[in-house]
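To whoever is on call:

I kicked off a structure prediction for a single chain this morning and the downstream step that reads the tokens threw a length-mismatch warning. I double-checked the sequence; it's 217 residues and nothing unusual in it as far as I can see. Pasting both halves so you can look.
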Amino acid sequence: MRAAILLLGLAFALPAGAETYLEPNVRDVDGTPGWVHVDPIQMPLRIAIGRPTVAAMGEGTRGTREAAIRGFRRWEEALRDRAPWFVLEFVEKDPEAAVQVVWRERKSAGGDAAGRAGFGWRREPGWVRVHGEVRLAVQPGYPAKRRLRPDEVERLAAHVLGLGHCLDCDSAMNYSWQSRERDFVSPLDVETFLALMEKPNATRVDGQPLRADRSER
């Protein structure tokens, strides 16, 4: 899900001197790239997240859930001064919530990834509703057998509920999300988020509206 959150973009290297790592985050039915993102009208963005069946290392299932929530809230905290309208709301279960968090084993979370997100959108009168699913795995399958630490769950959540990947950014969206040296959500992430919000919603790079809605549920 990549839209102001939940934006799965292609991975790429940050060009020298670039102020953001923003790239189109969707493709239309004919393959033309485009943009989709959440809007203030969708706030608070409700996230349904229950407890995992496997707890983080040295933590219970409740604490593991709270670690993931802290990771998601890193975006809210980082955006507070520049986009105070971006507000998250967490519940344990709500089938109508915009974001559904599913806890999985790593091998079923998608390839060798510990987390994965998919998103969809549909047009409402006067705006675009973005929704999707986030998958998190506390216990990687292979090659590592250990469970993630709570701080790793937190960083993973911040990484998955984010923008497109950037290979060489000091960013939550670098593939090395588990590195303690990297910021949770950096100023570069904030600038990229704001650049996305300036794009006309549900439009293609050629300025035309996306031709069809998409559902990931």
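Update from on-call: the warning came from a stale cache, not from the record. Cleared it. Sanity check on the structure: The chain has one domain: 26-200.
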